[in-house]
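FW: tagging you since you asked about this chain on Friday. Here's the raw sequence from the shared folder, copied in full. Didn't touch anything.
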Amino acid sequence: MLRIAAAIQILAVDEEPEGIDLILPETKELIAGIIAFGIVFVFVRLWAWPALQETLENRRQAITGQLEDAERVKREAESLLADYQAQVAGAKEEANQIIDEARTTADSMKSEIVARAEAEASSVLDKARADVAAERARAAAALQGDVANLSLDMAEKVVAGSIDRTAQAALVERYLDELGGLS
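HL: got it, structure written out here
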């Protein structure tokens, strides 16, 4: 196949007496090309160039507008971000303040509860001591009465006679005073 293509090229070169001039075409072709280029240039210059310039200008304005909008949106986003960061920092600070206040309140409540409990315990203890003292006094009084009766009974038996009531009472009182002095 390559041999056939090479043979065709050789025949084409042999048929032209001058050979192929690749740099300068024939004069008729050159003039026709210049006229065609001029027509295309005039057409492009009069109709296509202004439309192309208008399209490029519109595109440039659209891109400029989009860039300005993007810059504005970026500034707004940065502003919102700064606001949110400030709000978050404020919220963290407020949360820390609330936690500190809660701790302070809890500590004061704890102190109050402990103080109240200690006061109640102290009052219960004082009341218990007073109750014990009153019970002891009541028991001592009851014991004195029992001892007095027992003493009278014993004294009657010992004396084997009857002593009048005033003498008995005086004797009991003296006996109780002696018992009170011992305890």
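FW: The mean pLDDT is 82.
HL: agreed, and Residues 26 and 162 are 183 Å apart (CA to CA).
FW: great, closing this out.
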